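Collaborator request, handled under Task 6.
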Amino acid sequence: MLGASLSAVGMGAQGLAVGLELYKRTSDPFILGLVGLTTAAPMMLLILPAGYIADRMDRRRIVGISMVGACCASVGLAVASAIVAPVWVMFALLFLGAAASTMGRPARTALLPQLVPKDIFENAVAWRTSVQQLCGMAGPALGGFIAVRSITAVYVFSACAALGFVVVLPFMRVARIEDDGKARDRAFGREILAGVRFVGRTRLLLATMSLDLFAVLLGGAVYLLPVFALDILNVGEQGLGWLRAMPAAGAFAMALLLAHLPPMKHAGRNLLLAVAGFGAVTIVFGLTTNFWIAMAMLFLTGVFDNVSVVVRHTLMQLLTPDAMRGRVSAVSAIFIGSSNELGGFESGLVARLTTPVISVVAGGIGTLVVVAGTAFASPRLRRFGALADARAEDLTPSSSD
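Structure tokens returned to the collaborator:
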């Protein structure tokens, strides 16, 4: 938890600094979309092999190597920023840093079930999400504070945070991965795609991931925050830091609430309502010119998004055999992780073709349409109850799906 927290704060600060520096240098909102595309590309290319590796090697070692790579990329960004290197150099370093993080992502996700007993796993996910969102709130806010004085220093801070994760990893003790005994006899390509096949036949998990994918893909307002902070709300770098921190603040508040409440009894219905709420407040954010209303709407995006995170992550981990968790986590990263960055690209492209306001509002409307379509297409998701009651035999395909 400590290592992941250090890394999350550093990456949150760096994400703010990259967007701010590139937008100030180019004054083009599309450059923010290209940032999303650059960080999504390694995810699409490497995440499935990374999931396979996470199920075959010591997950702590994989995480350590990936963090060393991320640290080196941050150091490179610091040097590039200090000497005002060409924009393409910044993008190349972003790509390398994203590639390093991608290779360790399935291993990081798959470690938690090796550390926490199954009967308290849902509560553990809520607590871990609380800490993650607190770090997501602190990272951008701290990045904005540092960036007022030096953007280069933000990259140095991110490098130190990644290195801190490496330092604490040897102190972690984890249970051995349960191997199914057959995997090593199968073809390499077939093993890489095993996670895809598992998600494909687990219809409830597929519906949950798909809903998140399209909601995040269309609701990529966060990537346009430098435009809103500097040109629409006129609140500068520190204002940008607070805007970037608000979704994490809302998610942190909801995660604490979920950790203390009894387990959900109507998880499917709650998920659909939460994603619909995410779309609605995104529309209001796009239309407002008031800084405080914008802050409140971004806070609510985090509140609603956290419900989706807890439901999806808990289902994914409890329904997946330990020997496949790395590969299934990789599929989840394709659905959710890459959609964040691709959503940023979509938002930047639409903002260039129209306006940033139209881009954000259209994304919120699209999210509402996706919720309605998912609710109609998947009756099982609408009816799904307590997360703790989910069983593999309940998730076989049926005519209704």
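The cover message to the collaborator said: "The chain has one domain: 2-170+191-395. The two ends are 38 Å apart (CA to CA). Please let us know whether this matches your experimental observations."
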